[in-house]
Amino acid sequence: MFNRKKNKTKFATRPQPVSLISLLDSRSNITEQYRTIRTNVQFASSSDHPIKSIVVTSAGPSEGKSTTAANLAVVFAKSGQKVLLVDADMRKPTVWRSFKLNNEQGLSTLLVSANDVTQAIQKTVIEELDILTSGPKPPNPSELLGSKRKDEVLLQLNYLYDIIIMDMPPVVTVTDAQIMASKADGTILVTRENMSDKTDLIKAKELLDIAHARILGVVYNCVANTKERNDYYGAFAK
User: Where in this chain does the record put each AAA domain (predicted)?
Assistant: First the structure.
């Protein structure tokens, strides 16, 4: 059950880098939870409905969707698959800071030009993991994500990578995640204990259903520690 919280927390205007625990500590309980999510996604994939592109979103801000997207990309890459993490949150991007990359060009510059996608992709310390940062903040993110050029870019990326993980803005706040979820092979909805509002979660589900998104499951994070359960991330459930 999700707890409702009437007093909304005020967040810093500048997004902070996310925790890359799966990169820093491969033996931690948290990293193992990300591996569990990866395994469940792989089980959801089939020859008839392969999962190559995944949208990661949440109902509201600061629920952990960027942390989930980044760490999930790391564990997929460490399994030997060629992975691209796309920071498609062109409003409040965090990926470039988390991986200490340059953000002078990225998704936004690709969507307004005819440049080859490889010109904007950056390498990471993990051999199988590449990053497409958000690029400079555009005035019209939703329009760019709904453009024909976006379809061309996704087609090229699908050819180059086994898995594409897209970090999107909250789905209730703006329409960006709906647009991309309608094109992606699967969507993961991230929630946070003592943060997620039940009404917002219901609205998020409705919006994703309208977009005909394939919801793979829900990540319930920041689970309170107990004697029986000391992991940070809860179950990945449909």
Answer: 63-189
At 66-88, the pLDDT tens digits run 999 999 999 999 999 999 999 99
* DSSP output for 133-177: ---SPPS-HHHHHTSHHHHHHHHHHHHH-SEEEEE---TTT-SHH
Specify the long-range contacts of residues 60-63, CB closer than 8 Å, at least 24 apart.
60/170, 60/172, 60/173, 60/195, 60/196, 60/197, 60/200, 61/11, 61/92, 61/170, 61/173, 62/9, 62/11, 62/192, 62/195, 63/170, 63/190, 63/191, 63/192, 63/195, 63/196, 63/221
For the chain, list the domains and their CATH numbers. 51-237 (3.40.50.300)
Question: Which amino acid would we find at residue 11?
Answer: F
C-alpha closest to that of 57 among 212, 158, 187:
187
Q: pLDDT of 106-162, one tens digit each? A: 999 999 999 999 999 999 999 999 999 999 999 999 999 999 999 999 999 999 999
